[in-house]
Amino acid sequence: MITESPRGGFADALRQWRTRRRVSQLELAVRAGTTQRHVSFIESGRSTPGRSMIIRLAESLEVPIRERNELLLDAGFAPAYPHSDLDDPQLAPIRAALDRILYGHLPYPAVIVDRYGDLVSANAGFQVITRGVDPHLLAPPVSVPRVLLHPHGLAPRIVNLDEWAWHIIDRVQAESLRNPSDRLRLLADELVDLAPPRPRQLAPHHLGFAVPLHLRTSDPDNRELRLITTLTHFGTATDVTIAELRLEAFLPADETTSAALTELVTW
């Protein structure tokens, strides 16, 4: 027998996520191992899904696990994913692994940030490139995008600020659209106000696969570092805190940059 529940809550939230991901009811049904009719009935409030079905639908839509908990709560179920403090003793192995990754990346800069771009941890390489940044920008919570683009941060030393600023802004805006957050939206708006006008096209010397960061050092030599970045996250994390961590590593784009960082960074 089909039971009908009021519209709103989980039904509307599921439809919003499916629309945001641009997935049809049929495609979602195939991914989740159910039928289009069942998905339609769930979204119309004519059918109430069980806990396991909600999790399957959320996984099929790549909903972040923080928001999966919210979907479960909307449907009247308890959250499925813990949300631990990073200082929790149970997460000690994770913290140790992250510390090893940061240290292993030396002499090149690397940071660990949360979903909002706030700094969780950094290695000595990042501390080197942020020398001279206004102390108030480095007071917790430290917003790495803000440090990069603020006029009292690294912006005055970024040679290709017009390119790099919009590379950062586009990434924040894309994340805000993919996983809506008022905090990310406000950060994106702030960064737009800090950035120079968007260039009509990338400079012809860019690497093709990434926008390089051209950053002058704060030492008297004022050397130019050419860096590219990579982003890494825990793909199978089942704890909200761990799932939202991101490792951003800065890699030298040439041997001159590699040699300069090797000289500047104290291990």
UniProtKB/TrEMBL annotation:
Protein name in the entry: XRE family transcriptional regulator
Output one GO MF annotation.
Answer: DNA binding
Q: Which domain of life is it from?
A: Bacteria
| Gene3D superfamilies cross-referenced by the UniProt entry | 3.30.450.180, lambda repressor-like DNA-binding domains
- Pfam families from the entry? HTH_3 (PF01381), MLTR_LBD (PF17765)
> Organism source for this protein?
Catellatospora bangladeshensis
SUPFAM superfamilies cross-referenced by the UniProt entry: lambda repressor-like DNA-binding domains
HTH cro/C1-type domain residues are: 14-68
Its lineage reads: Bacteria, Bacillati, Actinomycetota, Actinomycetes, Micromonosporales
List the SMART domains hit by this protein, alphabetically: HTH_XRE
